[in-house]
Design a protein that fits this description.
Glucose Oxidase, domain 1, Aminopeptidase, alpha/beta, 2 domains, 11 helices, two-stranded antiparallel ribbon, 13-stranded mixed β-sheet
Length: 465
């Protein structure tokens, strides 16, 4: 049973769907252009958040630098993109950005034309070599998006890694296509995660499934049939396709671009406990805009978590002060590989040794319940969580033992800081798609999960940890 209801605890009712959605509608608006690092939309999102912190009397999170913490990263804004496809014995057809294809987020620029060559999984392993002897000179390669199903112990091979393989063999570009026989259906989803160096002049696009099917001859030679033969028999199905393609992409690329974390600080009132802090964090960024035409608004991922951090900061700042200090942190560049939270963990605003817990808020606005991470690793935190939920919120959820850390909680888990990851259950219907807009959220669920995050932060501010 939760202890007495303190004035601080009782303020959880001030978390309302109306106020949360007000923030989401700003952060996920077209004006903020998908909040991609390196684009003006992300800068506007930072300004909105910092102005809100200032208006509500929260102190700067970085004593020597104010509310912002800058770090460098690779940025790439896709200024324009066009693709023309010519299937044999047909007229050239201009494909539609956002419906027929999208660009890989860190694509190379340039204008290339060439015949298409299917390379399957792009494997060069001795027991399954899809590339040796294949003529790729001046061609555009076509590769599956996902790794083969028999390689469950390896990290996914990202498009840029394949691009380096293929460029070394003379290819001029890369077309990523869905794995049609995969249990989870592929959709056109944006991404900023890559490995390896940028390849100028080497464009990379992702083709929608209905267009990918057209690359093959039909009859028995379908995309599904090729994948089945590869997966079931390890048949090498690489070879030329009866299609020619022209890809023209213009980018604003910066190998040393700038992004920011933002942080606000609320000092605790207990003479001893105020030396310790609780971090309430979420990533602000998403995958941006392409060709000034299609916007990945990122309402669920992660305007929802950022809005929750902003609103919790207001509620704590306007009411009774907590015993421990609170840090409200908005991380940049999570979508590019946790770059902001990794940088923050290496350059924290307060010593990590004095940080008693980290609450990570990510994709909280949609789904059918709450799905917490780290139960078995931090039983004391979840004992408190379960009691608060049972008494105040009654949010349906799972008690499965997901590993601790994950997303922006990972750098803190690696540093030995107890953490909880608040996320909706079944939350990813529109993940990284242009359909991730405020209209797709579940405001009641969003309110409930954010209330739980508030209650946990309030209780942890004076709990003996």
């Amino acid at each position: 049973m939760v202890r007495k209801i303190t004035p601080l605890i009782n303020r959880f009712r001030e978390v309302t769907a109306e106020r949360l959605m007000r923030h989401v509608r700003v952060l996920a608006s077209d004006e903020l252009r998908g909040r991609m690092p390196g684009d003006i939309g992300y800068r506007k999102a930072m300004d909105y958040s910092i102005n809100f912190f200032q208006q509500h009397g929260l102190q700067p999170g970085f004593a020597d630098k104010g509310y912002e913490q800058a770090f460098t990263m690779e940025t790439c804004r896709i200024v324009s993109a066009g693709v023309t496809m010519t299937v044999i014995e047909s007229e050239p057809e201009r494909l539609k950005l956002g419906t027929d294809f999208i660009c890989r987020g860190l694509t190379g620029n340039g204008h290339v034309s060439g015949d298409l060559v299917f390379v399957g999984y792009c494997s060069e392993e001795s027991d399954f070599d899809e590339l040796t002897g294949l003529d790729l000179e001046g061609k555009i390669a076509v590769s599956f998006k996902h790794s083969p199903p028999w390689r469950t112990d390896q990290s996914p091979v990202l498009p840029r890694q394949k691009a380096h393989q293929l460029a070394a063999r003379g290819a001029r570009g890369l077309v990523i296509i869905p794995n049609p026989n995969r249990k989870e259906q592929d959709r056109l989803s944006g991404s900023l995660v890559e490995k390896g160096d940028y390849i100028p002049g080497f464009p990379m696009i992702v083709l929608a499934e209905h267009q990918a099917e057209r690359l093959f001859c039909g009859g028995d030679d379908t995309l599904s049939a090729r994948q089945f033969r590869i997966d079931a028999n390890r048949d090498v199905m690489s070879g030329p396709l009866p299609v020619r393609m022209s890809i023209r992409i213009t980018t604003d690329y910066n190998p040393a671009g700038v992004s920011w974390n933002a942080a606000a600080f609320l000092p605790g009132i207990d003479p001893d406990l105020s030396r310790e802090s609780i971090i309430i964090g979420a990533h602000m960024d998403h995958v941006g805009i392409q060709g000034e035409k299609i916007i990945f608004n990122g309402a669920q991922d992660n305007a929802s978590g950022a809005a929750a951090v902003i609103e919790l900061a207001r509620i704590f700042a306007e009411g009774d002060r907590p015993a421990r200090s609170l840090q409200f942190v908005l991380f940049g560049a999570e979508e590019a590989g946790l770059l902001g939270s990794l940088y923050y963990a290496e350059h924290p605003s307060l010593p990590l040794e004095s940080t008693r817990a980290m609450l990570n808020l990510d994709c909280m606005g949609a789904g059918d319940g709450v799905d917490m991470r780290g139960r078995e690793a931090y039983p004391r935190l979840f004992e408190i969580f379960d009691a608060l939920n049972d008494e105040f919120v009654h949010m349906p959820g799972t008690k499965e033992n997901h590993p601790p850390g994950g997303a922006d909680a990972k750098p803190f888990e690696d540093a030995g800081i107890p953490n909880m990851y608040f996320v909706g259950s079944n939350p990813y219907r529109h993940l990284h798609m242009i359909s991730d807009t405020p209209e797709t959220l579940n405001p009641s669920l969003f309110e409930g999960i954010t209330r739980l995050a508030y209650l946990m932060a309030a209780r942890l501010s004076d709990e003996q940890l």
